[in-house]
Structures are given as C-alpha cells and as structure tokens.
Amino acid sequence: MKKSSLYLITLVLFTSCTFSDDTSPKNSPMETTVITTADGIRSTNYLDYREIKLLRAETVTDETIDFLNEYVEFSEKKLFSDPRLKFENIYPIIIAQLDRNNYQAAIDLETEYCDYLENNHEYTFEISKCNPDNQFEDWAKKEDGSLGILTEDGRPMGSAINATKREGKCCYLFVSESHDEPMPSIGYVTIHEMFHIFQNSNLIDLSDDRNALDNIAGKRRGDDGKKYPFWKEGPAVYYSYLWYAREINDFDYFKNEMRSVLFSCYCGDGQAPIIDRYLNGPKLYDVTWESDADVGYQVGAWFVAYLNNINGEEPLFDFWINTQTGILFEDNFFEIYGKDYRTYVDEFEDFIRNNDEETIMSILPTS
Ligand SMILES: [Zn+2]
C-alpha cells in the first residue's frame, strides 16, 4: 500500500476520566489517528501507522543502534501483522537507547526526551515528570539533575516499557539498556519489550483505570491489591527466546536458555534453582514481584511452553486479541483454553514436579 493513497485523520476526543495520580487534569485530550485507504477502508497494515522516534545516548555505538533497529523491525513484523489488532494503539513508540556504562548520558537523554515531548506532544509533557511544575515529592529532580525517566538509583535504567500510550498520553517509552557486544541480549530483550506493546495495544483504550486494565491482562485479580507477573511476563520471556533462536537459526540457544531459567538459579548470588523455589513456594498464579519475580517470569515462560505444547501457539495470541472486548483474565483464559487457569497451572505444576529434566525439556519445540 502506498503512503500517498492514505488519508490521515486525527480526531481529538475529550473524555471524562478518573485518574489514579492526581497530577493529571480531569479531562485529557485523547489523540486517535484513523488511517484509511483511498477507498475509505481502515488500513490493517502496521506500516501505515508506524511512528517511531529513536533517542540515542551520546556514547552508544552504531552497532548497538543497528542491532536495536533490526530487532525492532523483526518484532513489529512478528507482532503487528495480525489484521485483528487495534493499530491505532500501537504507535507512537519512543525508544531511548541508553549506554549502560554512561550515567551522565542517560541524564542528558532525559533532557532530550523532555524537549521532544514539549515540542511534539504538549499534553503528555504537561502531565509528565518533564514538566517542572510536577517536579516535587516523588517526582522531584535529583541533585545530579536526573528525573527518574531513564535513570534509577544513580544509574541508567534497565530495559522496560516505562510509559504507555493511555489516559491521553501520546506514546510508549521503550527504554533500551545497552549490552556488551556482540550483544545477543539486546535482540531478545527488544522482542520482550515489544511483546508488551503488543499486549497493551489491545486494551489500553478500554479504561482510564490502570487496575481495571491489569484485571483484563491477568496482572491483577479482583481487588486484592497484588500484582502477578506470570501471565503478562511469561509469554514475553518465552517468545523473546523462541523467536530470537529461530531468527539466528540456533535452537541450542533456545534450549539452553529455557533449561537454565528453570534448572539453574538464574542469578549471581547462589540462590536455589528456580525450579526448587517454584515447587517450594506459592502457586505460580500467586507469585508476585515481591515474593520471587524470577519465578513469575521464568516459570511463567515454562507455563507458556506447556500450554503451547498442548494447544499450539495460536491460542495465546487469540487470548490477547480477545482482551479487546474487555473480558476479564479468568473468563478469557477459560474461553480460550477451555479450562480454569488454576486447574491448568496445577496440572502444569504436577508435570514439572513428577518428571525428570529430559522429559520436561521434551515439551519444547524443536524448530
Ligand atoms: Zn517484561
């Protein structure tokens, strides 16, 4: 589809919202871009919506940027090609590529990020940490000049989606940590973070209440006030390893990663292997970031491997598309997999508990 045949309509809607943080004004403009072809049909090609702004810390190498770009494009192709997606919710994405060894460059890049918002997305600037009027209490500027947007605890932030296009905010902010060359990790970490954009794009417009969105995404259940990583992080971890291995044509890489995230401690501080922490700890669906985040992430990835081995890969993507209806996690899981999520997780746990390493490894795909 040629760009020239497209019409771009930007609608500014005013919605009445309830905000969880009180720095946000009551009414926020929500930018919705509808892209149609010359025939008036809504485009389902993500390239027509694509809007990525790359911000680069001063000392980042060209190789890092090339590698980042390669895996951003790869992730977009893998994740954004489904015509059922809400393409209006995927972009803009602002990527901040940091140098993990250069803290000052991360502080400088915060200034660049804020200038970019101020010049291009004024409303988002106004309600963000960038706005000097908001820089007090938790959002106060540190003595070293850092704002906590691309920095944390006196160092550059680790990779994360640190802002989401919701509540009238313009953009996702994908913070990308640099890695040591030849840096395969920047490849799979990029897939991981882009996976979160895929997940979020299906539901961010459904509510202004973050908790309500988390209840749909399976990160939260009811109103117990806890956050559970397994269902949102598990697939991001699993597909980051699987797709990266497929892309580099090295399935040993995938097997080695999946083996080590379960059978080693996946740490540098001599804790028990993940599998022991899991089998002696809470149920996977009760693991929180505080109780043992690594178990939530890594065993979550193994739960995806288990589901996919039985059901194939498609249902997981159908689950996320189905979140577009606002269906709660519990009901959505039941609709897609035909079983209560607790029952499925318990069966998975029995499988992990009662089989040897070789049998557990045998459920992984081989190509
Ligand atoms: Zn994640």
Describe the model:
This protein has helices at residues 46-49, 62-79, 103-120, 122-127, 184-201, 210-217, 230-248, 251-263, 274-279, 289-311, 314-322, 329-337, 341-353, 357-361, and strands at residues 7-16, 27-36, 52-56, 93-97, 151-152, 155-156, 160-163, 172-176. It has 367 residues and is an alpha/beta fold. The chain has two domains: 46-201, Glutaredoxin (3-Layer(aba) Sandwich); 210-361, Neutral Protease, domain 2 (Orthogonal Bundle). The strands form three sheets. It has a four-stranded mixed β-sheet, with helices on both faces. A two-stranded antiparallel ribbon has the order 1-2. The two termini are 32 Å apart. Residues 192, 196, 233, 236 line the site of zinc ion. Zinc ion (ZN) is lined by residues 192, 196, 233, 236.
Rounded to the nearest angstrom, the radius of gyration is 21 Å
Beta-sheet strand percentage? 5-15%
Any idea what the shape is?
globular
Arithmetic mean pLDDT: 90
Second-tier CATH architecture of the largest domain: 3-Layer(aba) Sandwich
Question: Largest sheet, order of strands side by side?
Answer: 3-4-8-7
The third-level CATH topology of the largest domain is: Glutaredoxin
User: Pairing-aware structural class of the strands and helices?
Assistant: alpha/beta
**Helix and strand element order:** EEHEHEHHEEEEHHHHHHHHHH
User: How many domains, as an integer?
Assistant: 2
Q: Which ions and ligands are bound to the chains?
A: zinc ion
Task: Summarize the main sheet.
Answer: 4 strands, mixed
- Distance between the first and last residues' Cα: 32 Å
Number of helices: 14
Q: Which consecutive residue ranges, at least 5 long each, have pLDDT under 50?
A: 1-27
Helix content: 40-55%
